[in-house]
Specification:
CATH superfamily: YqgF/RNase H-like domain
Strand order of the largest sheet: 3-2-1-4-5
Helix content: 40-55%
Distance between the termini: 20 Å
CATH architecture: 2-Layer Sandwich
Shape: globular
Number of domains: 1
Length: 147
């Protein structure tokens, strides 16, 4: 089962994909945000190209588990994706995924300019990998729920 992972941001949308067995997530691309129509078209293209069955999108809960300001934007975006692609979209806690991605890239000695272009797609892979790891345990909440 192929799953697309998204890290939704104001400037870029990080995209990751898992292998066909649903075991390993890998970074794919960072979509430079332009218009909602172009963003949706690119996500749709990637979903079709990789024969995706569902999408996991990072849901920016606060550190104490409450919904942050960005949650409303992510929820609206998720609804638009579900409507357009007729695929389930699972909102998954993205706590500290961008920080973790930044740390990995700094440790890899990647320069600031390159990091800026890579951090979103790596964060998407981290979010998706967390979902896949939880899926392996069989302890996933109902797909309509947010983790």
């Amino acid at each position: 089962m192929r799953i697309l992972g998204l890290d939704y941001g104001r400037k870029r949308i990080g995209v990751a994909i898992c292998d066909e067995m649903g075991v390993v997530a890998r970074s794919l691309v960072a979509i430079e945000r332009k218009t909602i129509e172009k963003d949706m078209a690119e996500i749709e293209r990637l979903a079709r190209e990789y024969d995706v069955e569902k999408i996991v999108i990072g849901y920016p809960l606060t550190l104490d588990g409450k919904e942050g300001i960005q949650c409303k934007r992510v929820s609206k975006f998720s609804e638009m994706i579900e409507e357009r692609l007729s695929l389930p979209v699972i909102k998954w806690d993205e706590s500290l995924s961008t920080k973790e991605a930044e740390d990995i890239l700094i440790e890899a000695d990647m320069g600031r300019k390159k990091r800026r272009k890579s951090v979103d797609k790596l964060a998407a892979a981290i979010i998706l990998q967390r979902y896949l790891d939880r899926m392996k345990t069989g302890r996933l909440p109902d797909d309509s729920e947010t983790n």
